[in-house]
Amino acid sequence: MLSRVANCLYWMARYIERAENIARIVDVNLQLLLDFRNLNDQRLADHWMPIVQSTGDEAAFLALHKKATGKNVTEFLVFQLENPNSLVSSICQARENARMVRDQITSEIWEELNRLYLFVRSPQARQVWKESPTDFFQQVKASSLTLIGLTRATSIRNEGWNFSEAGKFLERADKTSRILDLRYHTLPERGLPGAVSQTEALEWSAILRSCSAWDAYKSIHSAEVHPRLVAEFLLLNEDFPRSARFCIKELHHALRRISGVPLGRFSNEAEKLAGRLDAELQFSTVEDIFAQGLHLYLDQFQFKLNAIGDALFNAYFFQSFAVVDEQVYVQQEEQQQQCK
Amino acid sequence: MPGVGKFRQHMLKRYDHAGFFDEMLDKDGQVRPHYRKFREHFKALTPQEFDHKRHSVDVAFLRQGVTFNVYGDSAGTEKIFPFDLLPRIIPAKEWDFLERGLTQRITALNLFLHDIYHEQRILKDGVIPPHYVLSGKHFRREFAGFNVPKDIYIHVCGTDLIRDDSGQWLVLEDNGRCPSGVSYVLENRRAMKRSFPGMFEDIGVRPVEDYPRELLRMLNHIAPAGVADPPVVLLTPGAYNSAYFEHTYLARQMGIEIVEGRDLVVRDARVFMRTTKGLQPVHVIYRRIDDDFIDPTVFRRDSMLGVPGLVRAYRAGNVSLANSIGTGIADDKVMYYFVPRMIKYYLDQEPIIPNVETYLASEEADKKYILENLNKLVVKAANESGGYGMLMGPKASKEEIEAFRKQFEADPRNYIAQPMISLSRHPTQVDGEKFEGRHIDLRPFILYGEKIVIVPGGLTRVALRKGSLVVNSSQGGGSKDTWVLYGDE
Fold it and tell me: Which residues from chain B sit within 8 angstroms of residue A115, using beta carbons?
């Protein structure tokens, strides 16, 4: 498979996953605010700013907006094209990557992604959003899940599939860890957290819902919400498809399928790092993690994910395809295809 | 049935077919024999059913991304190529005639290219004044004496045909570099089959679906000698090119890789693509990049789309290109003027399909005539395509004519002129309801491999604006499905 194609499939999957995660985070937090009273500007900023921080785009946000109000933050995270990681930007980039490799993806996937793209770029999307943000997010989430389903149902299990799986799970692990980190400032720096207030419990359940984990969590822990259990569930649960452990296992296996190298050995840096992280999650307890401090742990976790992403790039993609000289686009357009 | 009444009213009573050659109706307003069966089927549809079908086709095209990018528009604007549901129908006897004419033409063009890159007999014998060839923008003197694989230069040709007010077929231009549009031929047919599944068998329409297979067969045929099962790729300028949809479409239909220049590298005069498993050899390239951009070490140095060293690999015979480098000289609009002479010279035949009467601006007498008659002529830049750089005298304002006059006088070698042809018209749905005559042309696609293959049909383009003669999609054109019948009615 062409390196460029592999790269596009990897990023297409990442961007779809990214868009869906943004939809969930913003949706859940908008709803959460409905349960709070006495909201002043400061309370609102305290609520929204960590969400911006969790995306890693704080600087970009502050360049565009003065205050972290709900309106500004949702605009930034959902529609703003100046934010390369906004929901709409992510869908545009997923679709752009898909367009580059249209011959490599099934028409079912392409048509659904194109439909989603046409929807979020249409005036109708704003209209739906105005009337009911939840309906808007519902559509985005449903489309993303449809895409995941279509990919499973229609794609041949070749290298391209493995690269897109790797992209999806890497992105998902990253997003789960960032969502889990949203309320770190309410936790002790090190050591297990104590009892939580009712408001805090609501915030932690919002974290679960942002990861589509509420139902799965309840089936194990009933309705008792405690940061320790939430962290354990989202990081170490073996069977929940959005937990860090699950994602890293899937990522690790996708990398193995690409190279054909069996578990227990490695042929490149990406496999080495993914294998190491997989083992670490298998052989950790939540007590270990809190002893180190959840925030610090998550920070390092994200750092490790980045290292795996970089190593993957060096192993298979060789050259940067993301940054392209503007002149290239001009020349691509200039080629006169005789017709039309 | 009210539907039938309405249809008849639009199509047959109020439909004005006078003053032009109408493809569907003869002078007396009678439906031509090869449209009769279609008319029977069509009559059974109510306007509501018809609207519904048209709407679902439009939605399907947009959803599938059957679109083109607009030049000079802000990045990424995509439009669907408007599609008219009334098919253009060609009876068997006319198609036989066209097939013979097109085969004759591509044969002569290939002999011409071989000649001018070798002995240049046609120049030495004074049939074509040498300076027209040697000063041509697309003449590649670097390839003089070079033997292209199997002696084929133009492997894929899109020749534009029109009919004048008497119904006479004429060649408007040859496109022998990177002709595009064939994906619309295939997609239009798919849309028509979905919309009118019952019609095809009954009316007897020849299939077009073979095109990708024939294209691949041709590409395999030109592979370097001794390479069995040659790896074939399609080289695209990239996703921002107007025809990118077509590139991915063809690659997918043929089951070959679509590559950009940056996916290829040349080592020891051999071409490889970069894959996740390292470098893999490439032996045949169906390239959709202009000569100028294909290799920055030979042609334009600022090209960021090409592959450094590709020309060296090509010269070494390790990779074949379709179309060959240097074909642009044959579809130059000045060279067009000489094609009838080429046919006579190489084949000793008269052209089966004639040219449009043409004036060469570089000939003094012609130049004088052109300048005196700018308001009556269509003047075209020799090396442009897509309707750019052209003046439609009879439709232009005084200011436009004067502005063009300056451009023209600055570089007369660059222009040709032709009388305005009243293109034939075809019933076309306008404003989503009534049917009116609109001007059309036809681009069949000719493949030159082991033998010459022309898929029955082609892209019928239609000028959707009333009275407009410009069928280019960038300027308000649309398309129709083209049906070539097994029989004559």
Answer: 63
Cα separation of B240 and A99, whole Å?
Answer: 10
Best CA proximity match to A151, nearest among A96, A113, A189 = A113
ipTM score above 0.85: no
Identify from B74, B240, B271 which residue to disrupt to test chain A contact, counting A C-beta atoms within 10 A and taking the largest count.
Answer: B240
Structural domain that includes position B415: 359-419
Q: Collect all residues of chain A within an 8 Å Cβ-Cβ radius of residue B175.
A: 338-339
CA distance B303 to chain A (A): 7
Cβ <8 Å between A337 and B263: no
> What's the CATH code of the domain at B371?
3.30.1490.270
Residue B194 domain-assigned? no
Q: 3-class SS at B238?
A: coil
Angstrom distance (rounded) from CA A134 to CA A29: 11
Q: Are A2 and B289 inside 8 Å of each other by CB?
A: no
| Cα–Cα distance list, A204 to A187, A191, A197, A207, A214 (Å) | 11, 18, 11, 5, 10
> Please, are residues B83 and B480 in contact by the beta-carbon 8 Å criterion?
yes
For chain A, 340 residues long, give each residue's pLDDT as a single digit of tens: 899 899 999 999 999 999 999 999 899 888 888 777 667 778 888 888 888 988 888 999 999 998 888 889 999 999 999 999 999 999 999 999 998 888 889 989 999 999 999 999 988 999 999 999 999 999 999 999 999 999 999 999 999 999 999 999 999 999 999 999 988 888 888 999 988 898 889 889 999 999 999 999 999 998 889 999 999 999 999 999 999 999 999 999 999 999 999 988 999 999 999 999 999 999 999 999 999 999 999 999 999 999 999 999 989 886 554 445 667 777 777 676 665 4
**Edge-to-edge strands of the sheet including B284-287?**
B257-259, B232-235, B284-287, B320-322
| Helix ranges, B83-138 (H) | 92-116, 121-124, 130-134
If one counts every other C-beta atom within 10 angstroms of the C-beta of residue B49, the result is 12
As for how many domains chain B has, the answer is: 1
Q: How many angstroms separate the CA of residue B479 from the nearest CA in chain A?
A: 10
Amino acid identity, position B18? A
Q: Please name the member of A102, A318, A331 whose beta carbon is closest to the beta carbon of B237.
A: A331
Q: What are the C-alpha distances in Å from A119 to residues A17, A81, A86, A131, A134?
A: 17, 15, 15, 16, 15
> Looking at the DSSP assignment, which residues form a beta bridge with residue B160?
B173
What is chain A's length? 340
Q: Name the residue ranges covered by the structural domains of chain A.
A: 1-154, 158-318
Q: Which helix (H) or strand (E) holds A299?
A: helix A294-312
Which residue among B63, B246, B257 places its CB closest to the CB of A114? B63
